[in-house]
Amino acid sequence: MKILIIEDDQLVANVYRNKFALEGFQAEIALDGKVGLELVHSFRPDAILLDLVLPQVTGLELMRRVRAEKDFEQVPIIVFSNTYVSKAVQDAWKAGATKCLSKMSCTPRQVIDAVRSTLKSNGAAETPKPAAAPVHVVSAEDDAEFQEQLRGDFFAELPATLNSLRTLLQGLVKADKEPARLKALQDLFHRAHTLSGNAGIAGATQIALMADALEALVKELQEKPKNINVSTLRTIASAIDFLAILFGNAASPDDESIPAAEVLVVDDDAISRRAIVFALEKAKMKSLSADDPIKALEVLLQKKFDLIFLDVDMPNMNGFELCSKIRTLPQYSKTPVVFVTGLDDLESRANSTMSGGNDFIAKPFLFIELTVKALVHVLRSRLALAKK
């Protein structure tokens, strides 16, 4: 069977080509959408593995063109997507994707299994190898050795990756005109995109998760540059700082699970509460909301939460006062508390710290910005607990 891999990251593309070749596939790669379209016609693949983020021709446009041709309207197209960009996934299905995979959470073995399953469902039968060709059976030991080598190569590159991310962030912060900011965002987006893909194939799940969220936030700012402000820049910086911590820990595969999290949202404004809950759902976090600080304290005594979001301006008790009371509860002495507020002056920042808060995010906020904040604080807290 023939597989066409359309992926703009040379390292990721080579990994998949080599892995598919070991599995008996005839594999070709294209590093941009234009070349990918040309190879669809000349190589005539039985299946296409497609990244959505491509130069020259985007993954979505490529799918639309392929599906418009009768010869290729039934060819399985397995798409790589960002976990946090739900619209991109919806657009991929509409454009003709056969299957959508999260690049962040799929190892090469899972991708190959997905391709085989899709081909089987599509009624395709694999072409046997010629009798003279040596037959290599890929065992579980082969897969484990291959995966371990990928992890080793990935972690060896992390110091250079961190330097690149920090340099790109500095360029974004210093950019004083929109063209320069957009160029800095584009470079940072591609670096986060590459990191997410490389971490995914290496099985470094928490790094991939954080890079995936960072990629989505930067993409949102590219599309809406008016949202570049002190709050969003601080969120990007905190994500990169936390990636540095994850790089330094270089956890083993057994430590790479994504912990479930329970979050309490306290805000007297119903629209704001719904917005925060929606952003948390994107991070697969369960949440409970309260519209009154006194009720929130009662809930906190009944249930343990991993993260708390507080509005500042509330009746009966403001967010700073509520945070101070929360810190007197032994089970919440170290729980991350993030203020969500329209106040962004120095006095408010000082009050948030003095009352025991860990961070704040300014209203109005981007959904993905709050998602990134939540991931940073939950994963950082779990990492600290794991070291005790």
Give a brief rundown of this model.
This protein is α/β, with parallel strands linked by helices and 388 residues long. The chain has helices at residues 10-22, 33-43, 59-67, 86-95, 108-121, 140-156, 158-174, 178-202, 205-223, 230-249, 270-282, 293-302, 319-326, 346-354, 367-387; strands at 2-6, 26-30, 47-51, 77-81, 99-102, 262-266, 286-290, 307-311, 337-341, 359-362.
User: What percent of the residues sit in helical stretches (DSSP H or I)?
Assistant: 55-70%
Secondary-structure element sequence?
Answer: EHEHEHEHEHHHHHHEHEHEHEHEH
Give me the secondary-structure category.
alpha/beta
Radius of gyration: 23 Å
Q: Which residues form runs of ≥5 with pLDDT under 50?
A: 125-137
**Shape descriptor:** elongated
Strand content: 5-15%
Got a strand count?
Answer: 10
Give the terminus-to-terminus CA distance.
51 Å
CATH evolutionary superfamily of the largest domain:
Response regulator
Number of helices: 15
